[in-house]
Amino acid sequence: MMEKEWEKLRFEMVERQLKRRGISDEHILDTFLKVPRHLFVEKEFLAEAYYDYPLGIGYGQTISQPYMVALMTQELHLDKENCVLEIGTGSGYQTAILADLVASVYTIERILPLLNKAKDRLTKLGYNNIYYACKDGNDGWDEDIQFDAILIAAATNSIPKQLFQQLKIGGKMILPLGSNLFQRLTLIEKKEKRYEIKPLCGCRFVPLISRGFTNEE
Ligand code: SAH
């Protein structure tokens, strides 16, 4: 396919999947018009790269649906100065969207081959404001950084404590909160001594793996 044709698919994705559902932030829409999502999917799914659903990326993981990536990004109300932590790099697509909108993105992925692949793509695309770590994201970033926003791209039934501690006062965290089968996309805003919690909509993400191992591994 020619670059012009990919561009057309991106335009249609933005019009039909994002704008119609209420994504209105111009910076975010511009970013979705720009980032080549087809470079973040596996060859077998190339024709479906801009479709309205998640796609397999190997290791039992998925690249999120475009709308879900946009919604999570919009709800964080980011600005150019922000420093963001992302848990679950996966394909690196969400990472690219974030990196276009903020000063720096710190991204954690527990599956090394996925992280390496994402890093390779993002580096080739010229991103130089992304920091990568392969570890359990529940523990947060190794250095003591206070983030303006934290995006968790995997399902958990409680707010990971260490991650909450790495969030600035006034900062926002977005995560799919619930069981392995069904979650509610939830926005958390950290206040001085408490937090505000805002449920947004139903969603379905792969689980955030916690310490130890599961039967599937
Ligand atoms: N935003 C990504 C979503 C990837 S799916 C994309 O659109 O491509 C979620 C990712 O979270 C998976 O790659 C999975 O391996 C990773 N993950 C799950 N539990 C994790 C943990 N405890 N620490 C770090 N990454 C984790």
Unreliable runs: none
Secondary-structure arrangement, i.e. CATH architecture: 3-Layer(aba) Sandwich
- Assign the CATH superfamily: Vaccinia Virus protein VP39
Number of helices: 6
What general form does the structure show?
globular
Helix content: 25-40%
- CATH third-level topology: Rossmann fold
Rg on CA atoms, Å: 16 Å
Q: Tally of extended strands?
A: 9
Task: Please give a structural write-up.
The chain is built from six helices and nine strands. The protein has helices at 3-18, 26-34, 66-75, 93-101, 112-124, 161-165, and strands spanning 55-58, 61-63, 83-87, 104-109, 130-134, 147-152, 167-178, 183-190, 195-203. The strands form two sheets. It has a seven-stranded mixed sheet. It has a two-stranded antiparallel sheet with strand order 1-2. A hairpin with a 2-residue loop joins strand 1 and strand 2 (61-63). Helix 1 packs antiparallel against helix 2. The longest helix has 16 residues, at 3-18. S-adenosyl-L-homocysteine binds next to strand 2, helix 4 and strand 4. Residues 61-64, 87-88, 90-91, 93-94, 108-111, 114, 136-138, 153-154, 206, 208-209 line the site of S-adenosyl-L-homocysteine.
